[in-house]
Amino acid sequence: MAQSHLLGLPRIGAKRELKFALEKYWREETSQEELQQVAHSIRQQNWSTALDKGIDWLTVGDFSFYDQVLDTSILLGVTPERFENGKADNLLDNYFRIARGSAPQGSQVQPSEMTKWFNTNYHYIVPEFNQEQQFSLNLDLLQPQIDQAKDLSSKVKVQLIGPVTYLWLGKSRDQTDFNKLGLLPQLVKTYQQLLNHLEQQGIEWVQIEEPILALDLDDSWVNAVTQAYTELGADAGVKLLLTTYFGHITDKLDRIAELPLDGLHLDLVSGGNEQLAEVAQNWPKSKVLSVGIVNGRNIWRNDLKSSLDALKQSKERYGDNLWVSSSCSLLHSPVDLNSEQQLDDELQSWLAFAEQKVQEVADLSKALNHGSEAIKESLQASDVAVASKKSSSRVHNSNVQQRVAAISELERQRKSEFAQRKNAQREHFRFPLLATTTIGSFPQTDSIRQARRAFKSKEIDEQQYTQAIQQEIQQAIHEQEAIGLDVLVHGEAERNDMVEYFGEQLNGFAFTQFGWVQSYGSRCVKPPIIYGDVSRKQAITVEWSKYAQSLSEKKVKGMLTGPTTILAWSFEREDLSAPQIADQIALALRDEVLDLEKNGIDVIQIDEPAFRELLPLRKSEQPQYLEWSVNAFRLSTAGVADTTQIHTHMCYSEFNEIIDSIARLDADVITIESSRSDMELLQTFNDFQYPNEIGPGVYDIHSPRIPTKDEVSELIQQAAKHIPVDQLWVNPDCGLKTRNWDQVRPALKNLVDAATEARQQL
Ligand code: GLN
Ligand code: ZN
């Protein structure tokens, strides 16, 4: 019989129970026992769901109080030295200190770094190694979960991050770089002990995850995989399911096939169905092949019929050794579609959240074993959904499609080259050298939140709401004028979220009530769903911008979110390619840009903070991505006159590999994060001879600290070493919405004073 299993389930709970329990615990409003209770019941709920729906194997190790990589660090005894000082007397508090710097017990300490988990929006806690790193098993987090699962089923599979990926994810801190791979032999020994322990627990299968196999890896890392699994596989005592996801592994398949493994999991969704043919030539029938065919990172219902077609041949070849699963852990999907009360029936029928995906995995395996008849109803519902989506008029809008088909390359081209525009803009704006500006948002104060809440709950009407927001805009403008900034912003008080706000005013987008996905720790995001062709209902930001501009003699920047970022932070369609969706969004934004321009807004910023995030993991796929992403940005911006200044903003500082694409965006001004990297990133711009203007962040807004004037001056001097002064702007790293006015006011004042002083010294 084919078997069904899951790579992992969401752990936040259908109503974000874990989030609320964690935050209560951190505020010291509940005990650790109560927190453990919530964790226990989420796991119980998850496993019961899996069993009820007919999943064969329970997966243990997918639960985490904060992050699974941090759990792995605890499991392997990797905790950086600085956490030893002022230690709490219990594991969980020390765990939270590493994750977030504080806990009910134990002293405050600088937390470990956090970074994105491959190409997802999930963030993990980066392990910190030193050269003499020792590893030692600590089962305190894992063992209770194993015990709990064993009470429910005898078929328990343990999920672990594999040793090579674990090493790859970590970094060395406060030390000159050393070769992390030097730690591998000792780490493998510790894994050996772990596997032996699991064997003694009666565990049959271990899902050992090496997602780095889906990357372009140096030989040294591929060799490390060979070395690790040659040893681990030799006398593991448990069966090893080498698990990969987020891409194909065909380039390494021959190496992997030689290893003493018992099973292999492939992600067919991001790696492509073609992998099945490749694998059939390399991977023996006598071993388990697990196929991840239900998308773990999206919200669309599976097309069961075509999935069954794709699996047929594998079933013939692998028979009982075929396992069916989700592409990756369902951690990246929202929890339960049944929580949604406000979606219409049609849209709802197209969707599947984690719970529904569990059913799909179980159904597929059932159909492989007992024929399609066995899942007749599910198949029918899936067929109906596929058909209705294909023909639905809310999905397909021929006007939008025709407009996209008719895009001419000229529309992606500004009227003149930057060199010429620059002169026209100098003449037109007469901004000072080292002009000062901010990135867009100002503090989200209680009064803003209150107004938004009151409007949502209909306590105040639209007119009252508009007045309330105008009041906020007025304040922001007055503050900025008092501070003396050169180019102002309206402050984004009307926006809860930079993607949701635009999605709400575009056709083709839908919003859920409970479609939360964990982003990090207790933080969750609720991405909109792009289900249909995108078009603008009406002007989105024009009235707010016009109002803001009417209050000042200075220029007030229009503020939009770019096509790639809107796409990246939404659940995207599966029936239309990303470049096409991006172009649809870009056309809607283009109209908005032109409307702003028509209404006298001639400095317009289009944020693209997700530009780098969507960069494919594989080098070979990057040029194509960069091409469409740059093209979409250009389509949204290029319609304006030479004397309209286009800004963009990105909040990260690694540009080396993509600098030519950044230049191809052809924004007149780009503002970027950089204050923490001592302006080193500007070297990249310098080496490239980046021609357009740049505003490197000189105020780190991620910290409540107020930079002194001297600190800002120092950063301006540094910047001026790399970039000619007449190309430089002076601004913070990112938007200020997470700060409060008592921090922002003096910080910006120092920033303006530093710029003024620097100008005088020129
Ligand atoms: N304009 C946005 C803001 O200031 C940019 C946010 C971002 O870069 N993520 O909040
Ligand atoms: Zn930013």
Automatic annotation (TrEMBL):
Catalytic activity: 5-methyltetrahydropteroyltri-L-glutamate + L-homocysteine = tetrahydropteroyltri-L-glutamate + L-methionine
Keywords (A to Z) from UniProt: Amino-acid biosynthesis, Metal-binding, Methionine biosynthesis, Methyltransferase, Repeat, Transferase, Zinc
E.C. code: 2.1.1.14
Binding, L-methionine: I439, G440, S441, E492, D607
Pfam family, one: Meth_synt_1
Residues bound to Zn(2+): H649, C651, E673, C734
Top EC group: transferase
Binding site for 5-methyltetrahydropteroyltri-L-glutamate: R16, E17, L18, K19, K116, N121, R523, C524, W569, E613
Annotated GO MF terms: 5-methyltetrahydropteroyltriglutamate-homocysteine S-methyltransferase activity; zinc ion binding
Sequence ranges assigned to domain Cobalamin-independent methionine synthase MetE C-terminal/archaeal in this UniProt record: 434-756
Segments forming domain Cobalamin-independent methionine synthase MetE N-terminal: 4-316
Comment on bound cofactor: Binds 2 Zn(2+) ions per subunit. Binds 1 zinc ion per subunit.
Cofactor(s), by name: Zn(2+)
Any one GO BP annotation for this protein: methionine biosynthetic process
Active site as annotated: H702
Known pathway: Amino-acid biosynthesis; L-methionine biosynthesis via de novo pathway; L-methionine from L-homocysteine (MetE route): step 1/1
Positions annotated to bind Zn(2+) 1: H649, C651, E673, C734
Binding site for L-homocysteine: I439, G440, S441, E492, D607
Alphabetized PANTHER family for the sequence: 5-METHYLTETRAHYDROPTEROYLTRIGLUTAMATE--HOMOCYSTEINE METHYLTRANSFERASE
NCBIfam families registered for this protein in UniProt: met_syn_B12ind, PRK05222.1
Family to which the UniProt record says this protein belongs: Belongs to the vitamin-B12 independent methionine synthase family.
Biological function: Catalyzes the transfer of a methyl group from 5-methyltetrahydrofolate to homocysteine resulting in methionine formation.
Protein name from the UniProt record: 5-methyltetrahydropteroyltriglutamate--homocysteine methyltransferase
Organism phylogeny: Bacteria, Pseudomonadati, Pseudomonadota, Gammaproteobacteria, Kangiellales
Gene: metE
